[in-house]
Each structure stands twice: as C-alpha cells, then as structure tokens.
Amino acid sequence: MAEISWKRKPGQKLAPLAERLKKLGLVSDWDFVLHLPLRYEDETSITPIEELEVGVDAQVEGVVTNNSDNRFGNFEAWVDDETDMLKVRFIHYYPSIRDLLKVGKRVRLYGNPRAAFGGGLEMIHPKVRAPKSESDLPKTLSPVYPAGEGVTQLWLRKRIDRALMDVDISDLLTEEERNELHLPGLSEAINSLHHPKAGAPIGPLQNRTDPAWQRLKFDELLAQQISLKKSREMRDMNKGPLMPLRKGDNNSLTAKFFHSLPFKLTKAQIRVWKDIYESLGSERPMNRLVQGDVGSGKTVVAALAACQAIDAGYQAALMAPTEILAEQHFKKIISWLEPFGVRVVWLSGKQKAKEKREALAAIEDGAELVVGTHAIIQPDVKFKALGLAIVDEQHRFGVDQRLAIRAQQNGMMPHLLMLSATPIPRTLAMSYLADIDVSVIDELPPGRQEISTKLVSMSRKGDLVEWIGKSLAAGLQAYWVCPLIEESEKVDLTAATETCEEIKQILPQFKIELLHGKMTPEDKNAVMDRFVKGETKLLVSTTVIEVGVDVPNASIMVIEHAERFGLAQLHQLRGRVGRGSIKSYCFAIFGDQLSKIGKERLQVFNDTTDGFEISRRDLELRGPGEFLGARQSGAALLRFADFETDGFLVEKAMAMADKWIREKDPRAEKHAARWYQSKEKYLEA
Ligand code: ADP
Ligand code: MG
C-alpha cells in the first residue's frame, strides 16, 4: 500500500471516496479505530544536522542556502542549521516544493538521511514544511497509516480521530483479568497506538511488540477463538448418524475386511482408527482431520471407517482431488471390499452421460460406497443415507467444498473425515482449527526404505539419464516430473513433451510414456495402468501425479527444475517413491537461476524427509498466510496477531474464549460482534 501516490494517469478519475475506503477495509467507525499505523514519525523534536545518523529518520530545521535542478532533472536544495549542511533531493515533486525551498527560507524537514554522492548527507523526498514558530512541535508521535490513492494521511488522521471520539471503546476485560494477562486497557492501548506520547520508543511500536499491540492481538485472537468455538457449538447441535463399532461381531464387514488385510496395522494406525470409531459411535457429528506423512497408510484407516458406516446401514463417500487419485482409490477399494459384496460406485465429472445416470441411480438406491472426484458434491447427487464423508488430501479442497460434502442429509449431518499429508504446525492447528479434531499417524509401516535425496545441477542431467537407464535395465521404474513454468498448462506440456522425447532418444530400449493434465481420463488411466503393471518403465509427467498415487515398484523420482516447486509439493512428489521394499531415490534437478529462498528450500528438502519438520521450515520460509493458501484461509487471516511469534497469546485467548463460552458470559457475543462488525460473516470451517 502506497503512503503517497505521486502520479495518476491523465484523465483517470478517482473512484468515489466510500469505494476507495472500502478497498482499505474502512466502512464502520470501528474499522477506522482499528486502522492502525504502519509506522511513526517523531516530529516532536529537532535534531542538529551534525548529529544525523545514516538510516535513522529525523527532523531538522534550517535555512535554504542554495537550490538547483541537476542534470537528471532532480530538484535539489541545501539547508544549513549552523551545525552543518544537508542536501535534499526530489525526483518526483509538486511545483509547490520550489516555493517552500526558496533561498533564504526557513524550513523543517523530516526524512531518512543517507550518504550523498560526492560526500555529506542527503534526504530524498523529505517531508517539508514552513515552521510557524519554534514552539509548535507536536506532543505526540505522528502516525503514518496504510493509505490508498486519493486517501491522504491528513484526511485519515482526522477521520480516525473523530472515530476515536465517537466509538464506544469500553473494555470488556475486567481490571483483574487485564492484570493477570499483563495487558493494558483497551482504550488506552488503542489511543496510544494512534498517538504515542513524545519519547515513546518507536521500535516496539513499529515491530508490534509494545504492550498496546499485545492487547490488540489478544482481542483479535479472542474474537477468532470465540467464533470458532461458536461454530463448533452450532455443529454440536446437529445430530450425526449413530454407527457404533460392532465389537466382537466377526460377521461385520469391518471385521471381515480387517482380517483380510495382508499386513498388520501400525500402532499409530490403530490409535487413529480408535479415535475414529469412537467418534462414529456417538451422535455428535465428527469433524476429524487425520494427518499422516505420505505413505503412512491413511487410506486403509479411512476404508475401515467406511466399513463401520456400512455395517450400521449407512452409505459412505470418498472424494479425492484428482481423477487419477480417485481412480486409484476406486480400484483399491473394489479389490478390498467387493469380495464381501459391497457395491462400490464410481462418480466423476468426466463420465459419459449413461454411466453417470446409472451411478446416480445406484447412489440414490443406496449403493454402499461412492468413490470419485468433486462430482460427488454436485447437486444432482442424492444419497439414500450418507453417514460418512471422507475427503482425501483435504488441503486441495476449498472450505466451501468441504462444507458441501457434509450438508444435511435427511435432517442428519454426516460424519466428516479429512485426510492430509500436509501437517499443520501446532499453534496454527490450535488456533485456526479450533473446530476440528486432529489425529496423527506418526509412524510409517515397517520395512520402508529410507529415500535417498540428491540435489543435481542441470548440467549433469545427461549423467543422470544414463544412471536411470541402468536402473531401468535392472527392473526398476521411475517417475520424471517436469516443472511448472507458468500457470499455463500449454507451456508445461511443451516442456514435458520435449523432455520425454529427449529421454526416449537416449534410452530407446525402454517403454517411456508421457502423462499430463490435458489428457482425457481414459487416456490418463491407460497410461497409469501400464505404469502400475510395469510395462512402462519411465513415466514422464507434469505435476498431475503430485498427490496420493501409489505404485510400490516405482523407486526413482526425478524432479526437474525442483526450485520452482514449493516445499510441500516437493515432499508430496518424493512421497511417491519409497513405498515398497526397494531402495529409493529422489533427484532434485535445479537450474542455474536459483534464488536465495529457492536454495534454502532445496537445502531443507535435502536435509530431511520428515513431513512435520518440512512443514515447520516451510512455515518459517513463507509465513502462515501463504501456508494456508487463500482458499483454505478464507476471510479468516489474522490482521494483527502472528501465529509463529504470538503463540503464548493464542493459548491465553483460547483459555478465555473457553471460559466465557462455558460460563455463558454475554461478553463472548459482544466481543465477537464488535470485532467482526463489518465483516461479512464469522469464520467458518
Ligand atoms: P497415504 O497415507 O500416503 O495415503 P497410503 O494409504 O496410500 O498412504 O498407503 C501407502 C501404502 O502402504 C499402500 O500401498 C498401503 O496398502 C500400504 N500400507 C498401509 N498400511 C500398511 C501397514 N500397516 N503395513 C504395510 N503396508 C501398509
Ligand atoms: Mg493418500
């Protein structure tokens, strides 16, 4: 957000003021009250020019001794305060500056001194004004607000000051509560952020660690926690289908499926399964996220939950974010459950009309299990009795989609089970997901081979292809993932096609196929099938294989231009290998245009295969806003508080929200309503 905008295109009209303000989030008086300064200027004192420090904002006062236009068209002037001389320079300026800086005039300048070319100090674009008298210095620091085109600092200051007078800033916390939290009063905090007293240290104000900031952050977190807990309460008022586990009944589908598994569940899988089957045995609709690193075996746990729903006479649905992944689930689940007479229906947006009609009819007729893409949440799908909705790779779906799948069915709210390999760091989970129960599969099935990761420079791509040739000859299979160049599939496709041809030329003896997002579902499946069967040795693909795909014999993953992927994506891709008992490799090929952050990301990727550690480092490198992604965060992003640095405030806000709601304290409603006054709706899901 620009503080001052110098140029408007000729003829371009400004939008009406109200609209410009709305863009800044400024509608109600309360919005203005919470429009807090970005930074401050200390115009309460004058610094002698000889005491100026490079990089430290300061105010000086002196007489203009000379001015001129330099050869670049910049306007320059020299100001003398008897201790020293200071140069000021304007690259963009209003003509009125020339009048203010006429030789002989006394001026007051506020700006950031830097070393001038040719010696001495200069200020570029300082604030210039003609002092009325020596004693007219302000008593408080001057706030600098986030502003926009046609909304000036002066106007904002006046408008905010009026709002500060008009709005009821009464404190909802008692003195006792404030003392316990070591927080100042609300009105005191807000006023001191808008008008800090002269001499107040600017550092803590600007880096938002000042107690006044702590108070605002606390109130924000408190409002968030209250609204999250409210939404949980609302959900708890709904009834979910009762589907207790039929313990000891060896004829239940759950028991038969469990005993037919070719492997033993890990301890972590058993623990998470228990969380789930206990929830399903209660009428409170479940809202559970199962987190488990790639390959930890989330699918089988979800399938066990589906069996429990079916045992109780309900339907279950499993939704996956891509056709390929949904198809894989479909095949696996058929192989697991059809032997026991379960009807499994496939549903996808790209189905032929007749197939789709049949699928919809079967679902309405009560087919026990539906597997598919987001086609499952389209309005034409009518379940007979949906009891459990499972969302795989939940972070790939938006909030709306997750809510849609658990829409009321015949007055009942189906239980919701979400699966994700992208772990959400603890503070984030605590605050943001207050409405969700989290179960973690923190253990991989035994016998998995450590994946060895190698960073490879682009110049050594040839050697790598040769090495892969030898591995393919030894019976192994490999993925080769091509980079996302732009948000354009077409460009990606060209790159992937070229790479595929290139490799085919070097390794003509092997079957190599290309998989990309533009293919029809049938073609994609056919390619995938040949890879699963082992006919195709090397699969070159765009990132369509990023999530969930499971081909145990594939043990080599090559990621070209790995620096263009996010850490979570890289980790997902690497998770495609190391699924069998063969020693697995992941090669991250990096280009020569490696940014600092790109380098750091690859280093993290190289250093650890632990999903939680990767996610923690990812958060550090990117910050929570981007981590959650726009679609996941909805309108919920915090303005003032920061999950990483304000963890202790999160815990305190949680505790207070809990208490207020438990004790039916009317302050809970009041606080949330005040805080979210002009926001469209409270946070959801
Ligand atoms: P993810 O958690 O990434 O979705 P999957 O559910 O796809 O992982 O499981 C990965 C592979 O591990 C599958 O082939 C699955 O059959 C297998 N698997 C799951 N649980 C176990 C276990 N307890 N022991 C051995 N293999 C398992
Ligand atoms: Mg999976």
TrEMBL record:
Residues 474-620 form the Helicase C-terminal domain. GO terms for molecular function: 3'-5' DNA helicase activity; ATP binding; ATP hydrolysis activity; DNA binding. Residues 279-441 form the Helicase ATP-binding domain. It catalyses: ATP + H2O = ADP + phosphate + H(+); Couples ATP hydrolysis with the unwinding of duplex DNA by translocating in the 3'-5' direction. Keywords: ATP-binding, DNA damage, DNA recombination, DNA repair, DNA-binding, Helicase, Hydrolase, Isomerase, Nucleotide-binding. CDD domains: DEXHc_RecG (cd17992), RecG_wedge_OBF (cd04488). Its EC number is 5.6.2.4. GO terms for biological process: DNA recombination; DNA repair. It comes from the Bacteria. InterPro entries: ATP-dep_DNA_helicase_RecG, DEAD/DEAH_box_helicase_dom, Helicase_ATP-bd, Helicase_C-like, NA-bd_OB-fold, P-loop_NTPase, RecG/Mfd, RecG_dom3_C. Plays a critical role in recombination and DNA repair. Helps process Holliday junction intermediates to mature products by catalyzing branch migration. Has replication fork regression activity, unwinds stalled or blocked replication forks to make a HJ that can be resolved. Has a DNA unwinding activity characteristic of a DNA helicase with 3'-5' polarity. Belongs to the helicase family. RecG subfamily. This is ATP-dependent DNA helicase RecG. It comes from Parasutterella excrementihominis YIT 11859.
